Amino acid sequence: MLAKHKNKIVLVFIFIYTFFYYGWITIFQTHEYIRTLGGNLFSIAGPLLATIWLAQAYKKNRDKDKLFWLFLSFGTFSFVIAEVLWFIYETVLLFDVPYPGSPDIFYILNIIFYLMAFSYKLKMEKKYLSITKFIFDIFLVMTVYTTFFWYFLIKPLIANDTVTPFELALSLFYPLGDLTLLFFIVILFMTGRRLFHRYTTVFLFSGVLVQITADIGFLLMQNTDSYVSGSFLDPLFVLGLMLIGFTGLLQKEPFSEETSNLLLNESDSRLRMLFPYIYVSILFIYMVVNASTLNEVTFGAGVTIAVIIVRQLLVLVENKRLIKDYQRQTTDLILSEERHKSLFYHHPDAVFSLDLKGHVLSVNEKGEDLLGVKREKLISQSIMHFVDDAYKEKARETFYNTKKGISQHYEFPLTNHFGRLVYINVTHIPIMIKTEMVGVFSIAQDITQNKRNEERIHYMAYHDTLTDLANRTHFEGNLNKQIRQSEKTGEPFAVIFMDLDNFKHINDTYGHATGDELLSEVGYRLRLILNDVEHGARLGGDEFTLLLTGISSRNDISSRIQELSDALSHPYQIKDKKLTCIPSIGYSLFPEDGTTAAALLKCADDAMYANKRQSKQH
């Protein structure tokens, strides 16, 4: 921003400098020597500043542009040398400047270096040019220029029999060089894109055009022997060179592709659009003004040309409107596509785009991670390949309903490429273009962790966390189930109730942590004994219940109880302590001792306490 602000100040300075130059030659119009002295100093200082600015651009610019800025700086410096020689002749030696003379060498070099700069730029940046598209506009502009150059400059020079061949060649070089320079700058102005920094071509084109205009005026005045030093044309030379030099300062502004273009976007440049027709209009007006006779044919031809120009301008205006509409619609479409891509590829869940057969058309990164397969391998595969066999029918049904235009939502497990079981929550959304369905979006949310959490919560609700056995609620539910089943089959079963005789003593002596570890070990041994872990439960404290099935008599129960007592009576190694905890056990038999869960538990509990009292008596 600082460089941009400084450049604005420099641009204002350039016009103030030109204003003061005009002021000087106006104020001292009658003082020839002072007017000439000041004018020559102005003509040296301005181009010298331009040379410095261009040399800075050469030092600081990118490699491919270095030669362009170097040739431009050589061009402006050649002009400085020419002006210094002019100053020596006219102000120091007080001689008339000879023509041809030594200043002409450097004026010619000024044009040659400009041509080298633009030729180099066109060669290096030809891929950004679209000359074919504007060939007729370029031809139109150059026809007007060439016509005026021939009529006012070249033709009078050729017709002049008093000049030598050398003088004629030198005199012809200036208009022909200017004409060639115009050709290059018109090509850049009409067709170039992204060749320069922001606004560079505006000032480059303006500077070259101002300098050529001044040069044409000078040649016309030279042909009529009316040029004098301090003419109104002299400040124009300086203004043109300083505008060209100013483009070197623009390179200090931050460079970006968005703002780096030749002037304006081709579709939006009104000036570029009107440029050829302005010159045709000038030629037409000049033809009418200078016509020797005005008859019906001349008038009709003039009106016809005017109508054609107006009609063409109206067509261009309409084309410009259509292009704007097209660009607006294109921009809206691009924005819509970018929003879709952003939603699709950056969605936090896995997103698949499927055709109507269920084949993958596209997938985001989360989808790759979910299935464990890269996008390239997923494309054209059927999504059913990853669905477990048990859920394929449901998946097909859901996909079929989606093809009817109805969004679907369901959960199922799948096995990914690495064999990992993943639970997903899938939403199928129809893809509609106008009224036709062309595919399906599938959004899959990985709910594996949620499922595990649900299972864990459900497990904790029905199990004792210390022993991993069923809790009272779960055991009573299992017991009621077993009662209903046995009522149908007539098969007996037993309910065992037990506690640990000296658990309270251990808990009080060694602490609750030791007591909890002991209970955990008891639960572990019970799980080893039981055929079904769900048939064992911790009711609370040191009380446990067991459900024994597959028994035929009380003798079977006695042998199982003995097995249970032996397993639990072995010493427990709790940290550095060896503890023994003998269980007291009682049981009840269905249906002899009860036909309800409460009756069976009470009977088993009573039997346990009876056995506990009996063992104490012994």
Topology:
Layout: H1 2-27, H2 32-60, H3 66-92, H4 102-124, H5 135-159, H6 165-191, H7 200-223, H8 234-250, H9 270-289, H10 296-345, E1 350-354, E2 360-363, H11 365-371, H12 375-378, H13 389-402, E3 408-415, E4 421-433, E5 436-446, H14 448-462, H15 472-489, E6 493-500, H16 503-510, H17 512-529, E7 536-540, E8 543-548, H18 554-569, E9 572-574, E10 577-579, E11 583-590, H19 597-617
Antiparallel strand pairs: 1-2, 1-5, 3-4, 4-5, 6-8, 6-11, 7-8, 9-10
Could you characterize what this model shows?
By secondary structure, the chain is an alpha+beta fold. Helices cover 63% and strands 12% of the residues. It has 19 helices and eleven strands. The protein has helices at 2-27, 32-60, 66-92, 102-124, 135-159, 165-191, 200-223, 234-250, 270-289, 296-345, 365-371, 375-378, 389-402, 448-462, 472-489, 503-510, 512-529, 554-569, 597-617, and strands spanning 350-354, 360-363, 408-415, 421-433, 436-446, 493-500, 536-540, 543-548, 572-574, 577-579, 583-590. The strands form three sheets. Strands 2-1-5-4-3 form a five-stranded antiparallel β-sheet, with helices on both faces. A four-stranded antiparallel β-sheet has the order 7-8-6-11, sandwiched between helices. It has a two-stranded antiparallel ribbon with strand order 9-10. A hairpin with a 2-residue loop joins strand 4 (421-433) and strand 5 (436-446). Helix 3 runs antiparallel to helix 8 (234-250). The longest helix has 50 residues, at 296-345. The termini are far apart. Mean pLDDT is 81; it is low at 256-268.
